[in-house]
Design a protein that fits this description.
This protein folds into three domains: 5-85 and 477-615, Immunoglobulin-like (Sandwich); 92-132 and 430-470, no CATH class; 166-424, von Willebrand factor, type A domain (Rossmann fold). It is globular and about 95 Å long. α4 (179-189) crosses α11 and α6 crosses α8 (280-317). The protein is an alpha+beta fold. The chain contains 13 helices and 26 strands.
Amino acid sequence: MGRSVEIRFDRRAIGLLVTLGLMVFAASLRAQTSPAPGSAPKTDAAPAPSAAQSSPTVPSTPAANASGSNLSSAEVASHDTSPTFKVRVNLVLVRVVVRDQQGNVITNLKKEDFQLQDNRKPQTISTFSVETPESHAIVTASPATVTQAEEPSSEAPEAAATLPQRFVSVVFDDTNMQTQDTLSVRAAASHLFSSMAPSDRVGIYTTSGQFSLEFTSDRAQLHESLLHIEPHPLATAPGVHECPEVSYFQADRIVNYSDTQALAIATQDAIACSGGSIPASAAQALAQTAAEHTASIGDSQTEYVYRHLEDTLRRLSAMPGQRVMVFVSPGFIVTTNTREGGDFIDRANRANVVINVIDARGLYTPDMGDISQPTQGSPLTMGLRSAYLTEAQFAQSDILAQFADGTGGTYFHNRNDLDRGLRNAIVAPPLSYLIGFSPQNLKVDGHYHVLKVSLAGKQKFVIQARHGYYAPRIVKDPVEAAKEEIQEAIFSQEEIRDVPIDLQTQFFKTDQTQARLAVLTHVDVKGIHFRKVEGRSRDDLTFATAIFDENGNFVTGGEKVVEMRLLDPTLDRLNHAGFTVKSSFEVKPGTYLVRMVVRDAEGSQMAARNGAVVIPY
């Protein structure tokens, strides 16, 4: 949602514009920015830096000069538009946690300590950062001050804005959990909320989508929500037998791997469950049909789980502060959906989301089936069917381990103290290393690339990192890719400083229920890379603003592009003073987080800052 941007120039800037012939613009600008009779002046949120005080403010629309020449002669203008800036290089992010033999996290490693291979080919690490829970704390700009016409000047100073510092999404995989899983998980999950801090917000979600509770700090509401956790499978209900019975794992072997042994077992079972009344050829056709049906249902269920995990990740990615996803699941078989897991891990890393995984089965031994529901299969195949069942139960754990390893999370499994695992699951690792590289000559073929992270020294440390990634299948449209990139930056808490900016806020209460919130972004022009064209320094800056409430919900926002076509005298002046963009939003009284992202077109650089403001009721 776009908002107007108010533009003003100080006396020095106006003088410069006069020399350039922009008399009409200067006159109209003074008329727009003069306060109406009896109106209260707007004051800055905090004393502004001297550069910001003397810097011009960028015009909201292009203006014609006195001679009525073309609008393109303006040196600085801004307007609502879709982002058209250049896209950064394809970056693969790998989160790494390094521990010693006692499980303690190693905290003193540097970029040169790591080595990275992509399909056994050494890669150059281009980005490196050290991540801690403290590094994701919301660093806010100067707090705003109240400007109200009817408030007495002796009003007590406003309290600093207090915002949640950690958001936790607890996702229960009720699509794959059995009844015994949900009973033990519900009892253990009640201990999870005991480790919540006052600044924590927890949301409850399910992979079936049957129940969800948005982020809250109300522990009573969170405890009550656990009563809604129960199995919601898409597959055939327990106790309903088909002829022949084919497990999802066995069906995958038949359909996707042409496993003759798996098909022979299903054929023998088809003969047995039909009472031996059909010939072998008909039994094999029946087995093949059953396998395809089971595989289809299983694939649909796995796809269903991924879609709800993505929805939850998207919601969590929009939250400020530290982000943690707790995935409580017995695991599931990944067959044709292998790419989904890699893409999910990649999105989590880009959003700085750590996934801690709890195996809902607890301490378990291979399950040989429910003796209360005897199978209709052949006794001759019982041993082989049990072997497939055991192999499937171990395979269920693979995806859980990948989620944890790939995002720097913990994998709590094969233990009965689920309450302890859940209690510790809302925290991220004390320290992790986020390294990135740009694959050279990457083919757009969708193939899987194996990653290996190692240390340059001979230390016997345990390295936890993602196992690989998938190459893209298609080349994204640059404009669409740019939109995705700026959206990721908006819904991120990361402070980015490619372009030097300062952020301040101010507000004016129009009445008891409404206020006008102003966001002022001062840009240091010396940090911008211009392109010289026809004697002018050119660049376009995209300013994207998002306002969130105290629970991390998006309230409003806007996007502007500032087009700069600067003559040398103007550029010299702005190199000393910079300029300020002011955007205004109508909001209600409350506590808000302000997120500002600035991106330039020529240098492909980005800046991002956070601010906090309390507007009293």
